Amino acid sequence: MPELKCTVQSCKHNKNFYCNLDQIMVGGDHAKKAHETCCDSFEERKGNAYSNVTGEASPVSQVQCKAVECDYNHNCVCHAGKISVEGSDACRNEQTECATFVCNQKK
């Protein structure tokens, strides 16, 4: 599983730049650039509310990925050693991105 760092502080799953979900989904079926991807697991935090998931956020998460053109995507699973999800003030998942995305021009 990749190390997942997340700067999306407006997401209710973000705790100290880590995600408290065991698995996230990266969207971007037709992405050719990082800004064309997004975190489909994003949920906007309302006030100081965090998700109901108990326990601490882990630095690693399983990452399912719809960005089939990404070099790290193998059978819809991310195989990067580290990934970064960005979008510090996002209100919707479309305002987030997988900054680790690398387009594989050979696919």
Structural commentary:
By secondary structure, the chain is mainly β. Helices cover 0% and strands 28% of the residues. The chain starts with a strand and ends in a 9-residue tail after the last strand. The relative contact order is 0.32. The model has no long low-confidence stretch (mean pLDDT 91).
Q: Summarize the biggest pleated sheet.
A: 3 strands, mixed
Using the CA coordinates, give the radius of gyration: 13 Å
Poorly predicted regions: none
- Counting helices, strands and paired strands, the structural category is mainly beta
Strand residue content: 25-35%
Question: For the terminal residues, how far apart are their CA atoms?
Answer: 23 Å
Total number of beta strands: 10
Strand and helix order: EEEEEEEEEE
Strand order of the largest sheet: 1-9-10
Number of helices: 0
- Average pLDDT confidence is 91
Tell the overall outline. globular
The level of helicity is under 10%
Show the helix and strand layout:
Layout: E1 3-6, E2 14-15, E3 18-19, E4 23-27, E5 38-39, E6 62-65, E7 73-74, E8 77-78, E9 82-86, E10 97-98
Parallel strand pairs: 1-9, 4-6
Antiparallel strand pairs: 2-3, 4-5, 7-8, 9-10
Task: Give a quick precis of the structure.
This protein is mainly β. The chain has strands at residues 3-6, 14-15, 18-19, 23-27, 38-39, 62-65, 73-74, 77-78, 82-86, 97-98.
Structural key phrases:
three-stranded mixed beta sheet; globular; 107 residues; mainly beta
